[in-house]
Write a structure and sequence with these properties.
InterPro entries: NAD(P)-bd_dom_sf, SDR_fam
Strand order of the largest sheet: 1-4
Order of helices and strands: HEEHEHEHHH
GO molecular function: oxidoreductase activity, acting on the CH-OH group of donors, NAD or NADP as acceptor
Strand content: 5-15%
Number of domains: 1
CATH superfamily: NAD(P)-binding Rossmann-like Domain
CATH class: Alpha Beta
Structural class: mainly alpha
Organism: Culex pipiens
Number of strands: 4
Helix content: 40-55%
Low-confidence stretches: none
Number of helices: 6
Protein name: Oxidoreductase SadH
């Protein structure tokens, strides 16, 4: 299954997206445990892939640039190669991002919330406030 790094780390402005990706993560973890408890732990393997930002839509890339987002952007081929490698190695979890991002995502749940917010501020320093977004939408009507 394919989730997202937003299924590991929730980020503001992605509430619905993060919720569904956390759901995929929970489904795959529970399914993996179900197979194990039924004696299939060495026969049936499930893999959940967590890609980061993938260069698939130009408008999305433009938006990331506008936000001055400092995260690695990968090609679909890079993510596919990591996913296939993980499936072939029967890995439960494949974080399809550069190694330093994999480490950050693993450490994220261990850090206090204040530190996590500082880290997010480093990677994205220009996220508009909700009031700004509403006024921008109203002025376009």
């Amino acid at each position: 299954a394919v989730s997202s790094t937003f299924g590991i780390v929730a980020f503001g402005r992605t509430v619905s997206y993060s919720a569904t990706k956390f759901g995929v993560r929970g489904l795959m973890e529970a399914l993996n445990e179900e197979f194990y408890m039924n004696g299939y732990g060495n026969e049936i393997f499930v893999t959940c892939v967590y890609p980061g930002f993938v260069a698939t839509r130009q408008e999305f890339l433009d938006y990331l640039h506008q936000l001055r987002c400092r995260v690695p952007i990968q090609t679909p081929d890079e993510v596919a190669d990591l996913a296939i490698d993980g499936v072939l190695k029967n890995r439960c979890e494949v974080i399809a991002s550069p190694l330093y991002m994999q480490l950050m995502l693993k450490l994220y749940s261990l850090m206090p919330n204040g530190i996590n917010r500082l880290v997010m501020d480093i990677f994205v320093d220009n996220v508009p406030r909700l009031g700004y977004m509403k006024s921008s939408l109203n002025s376009e009507s």
